[in-house]
Specification:
Layout: E1 2-9, E2 18-25, E3 30-35, H1 41-49, E4 56-61, H2 71-74, E5 77-80, H3 91-98, H4 107-117, H5 130-143, E6 148-152, H6 160-173, E7 179-183, E8 196-201, E9 204-210, H7 211-217, E10 218-223, E11 232-238, E12 241-247, H8 258-275
Parallel strand pairs: 3-7, 3-8, 5-6, 6-7
Antiparallel strand pairs: 1-2, 1-4, 8-9, 10-12, 11-12
Helix pairs in contact: 4-5, 5-6
């Protein structure tokens, strides 16, 4: 579904942002794209969506080159950027104008999403709050039934009830032939939904694993005493003691703390990588 080979990119008159990026994503499920500020997450998403073009290597999405911007490609990919733009149209007018670009747009599903998010239909989108605009564009994106849906920081600006509604609607939209890619700093908002994790750092993808691989090789535990550094891959202090990541030699069934995993990989990626070398 998505394949990047030796991908390189740089903005004019600047150092290369990416060099020799390799990535392969199959259809189905939700991929979380994580990285520090400035790591290039948004740039990578824009390359996948065909909004900017790589300098080197190849980018294939749905069997096509996004840079060619073929109609058959554009009708099957939806990109919600972090910086939103909405025209001076009502929700109903927006649908009348834009839904026709997506052959599988499901108006009935949009009505359900619109009701869940309490989106007014006869008010100009430009008069919406930031959170309302985001909820409207999320609802529209899910209703397109595109095979690839890319969401850049989708929960920024959403209140707590709206975040819960977002998770509910996203789960309802998942099918085997779709791929959702979510880039976020609000990892706790989506960590229970993610199937695959990709971490971008210093112009390279330094980690790509699915949730089964992670739970098979790593255990996330809590303990009162400071962990033994010989057996612990990473730990963080909390008010009750310590959260720690250890190698899962005892086949423990633990919940993945995505934020802690990200911090562990950024600070000590070799130790985490070594934990995956042994096949289980």
């Amino acid at each position: 579904m998505i394949e990047l080979t030796n991908l390189g990119f740089s903005y004019s008159n600047s150092e290369k942002l990416f060099e020799n990026i390799e990535l392969k994503l199959d259809n189905g499920g939700i991929c979380g794209l994580l990285g520090k500020n400035g790591a290039g997450k948004t740039t990578l998403l824009k390359i996948l969506a065909g909004l900017i073009f790589p300098a080197d290597g190849s980018c294939t999405v749905l069997g096509q080159t996004p840079a060619n911007r073929q109609p058959s490609f554009l009708e099957d990919i939806y990109f919600l950027p972090e910086d939103l733009y909405v025209p001076a149209l009502t929700a109903e007018q927006y649908l009348q104008f834009y839904a026709s670009f997506y052959p599988r747009f499901d108006a009935a599903s949009f009505k359900i999403f619109q009701k869940e998010f309490a989106i007014p239909g006869n008010k100009l989108l430009t008069e919406f709050s930031h959170g309302q605009k985001k909820k409207f564009l999320i609802a529209f994106g899910l209703a397109t039934n595109c095979r690839i849906v890319i969401l850049d920081e989708p929960t920024n600006g959403l209140d707590i009830p709206s975040k819960a509604q977002f998770r509910k609607l996203l789960v309802s939209a998942i099918t085997d032939d779709k791929l959702f890619i979510i880039s976020t700093h609000q990892v706790h908002d989506i960590e229970n939904l993610i199937d695959n994790i990709v971490i971008l750092d210093e112009g390279k993808i330094i980690f790509q694993k699915n949730l089964f691989e992670i739970t098979n090789h790593l255990a996330f535990i809590q303990q009162q005493n400071i962990p033994d550094t010989l057996s612990c891959l990473y730990y963080e202090k909390n008010i009750h003691g310590y959260n720690a990541i250890i190698e899962n030699h005892q086949d423990l069934d633990t919940h993945v703390d995505l934020e802690m995993l990200f911090n562990a990989i950024i600070s000590n990626k070799n130790a985490i990588k070594n934990a995956f070398k042994e096949e289980k």
